[in-house]
Amino acid sequence: MTVKISCIIPAYNEEARIGHVLDSVVGHPLVDEVIVVDDGSSDGTADVVEGREGVTFIKMERNRGKTWAVTEGIEAAKGSHLLLVDADLLGLEAWHLTALISPIVYNQADVSISLRKNAPKIWHRIGIDYISGERVIEREVLASKISELRKLPKFGLEVFMNRLLMDRDARIAVVQWPEVVSPFKNAKVGWMRGLTADVKMITDMCRSVPPWGLASQIYKMRRQRVNVPDQA
Predict the structure, then answer these.
(1) How far, CA to CA in Å, does 65 sit from each of 4, 85, 146, 152, 183?
(2) What is the pLDDT of residues 143-190, one digit of tens each?
(3) 74 close to 143: Cβ distance less than 8 angstroms
(4) What is the CA radius of gyration of the chain?
(5) H-helix or E-strand containing 224?
(6) Rounded Cα–Cα distance for residues 200 and 215 (Å)
């Protein structure tokens, strides 16, 4: 199968950061289309993205959460595979994307997942960040589950994807991104709002998969990892 990559970037109030992410993604030789979904931002995110050459822009009228925003992108995507990238990444360069996409292009894995510099130390110890937002996955895996995706809580996407990968016994490539950082929420919105957002995210994850299910995901996904040579 010829691999065609559709990059989906969900964004909520990322005016200060999304421009650099787009600089790394737009025009990348392995990326066939870039779709930014503005999840009802109240800042200038739309001003940064709208009209940018090489970007399909989708503006949601109200904030409905990352899962819904990504689902909007999936429905618009035309590629065989989806490259999911968060809009707030710091230190992202084109070669990081090459490293993430290459295992799919060379049929060395069925899905690839990033392991960022500031992922929790325990994820580095076990060798996988099971809730990483940066992934490459076959579009049909998610496109066939649109109705289920619409019913997920705002932050239930990654653990839902994990269940699909385990059901398919998918080969998982973990790609090190030692220069890339995803800012902590308290650095973006303040300590109290950041803590509230973290609690909400954990609650949504547990609504999608019970705590013992999260532990099972980590165990099974580690067993499904495959080693791939560096193609970057």
Answers:
(1) 26, 15, 15, 10, 18
(2) 999 999 998 887 789 989 999 999 999 999 999 999 999 885 555 555
(3) yes
(4) 16
(5) none
(6) 19
pLDDT tens digits, one per residue of 138-148: 999 999 999 99
Own/partner pairs, 23-27, CB within 8 angstroms, 24+ separation: 24/92, 24/93, 24/94, 24/96, 24/97, 25/83, 25/85, 25/97, 26/52, 26/53, 26/54, 26/55, 27/54
pTM (predicted TM-score):
0.88
Phi, psi dihedral angles at 35 (to 5 degrees):
-120, 120
Measuring CA to CA, which residue among 176, 70, 68, 181 is closest to residue 113? 176
CB atoms within 10 A of CB 164: 17
Alpha helices in the chain (DSSP H): 18-25, 45-49, 66-76, 94-105, 121-126, 139-143, 146-151, 157-167, 185-189, 191-208, 211-223
* HSE (side-chain half, CA atoms, 13 Å) at 185: 12
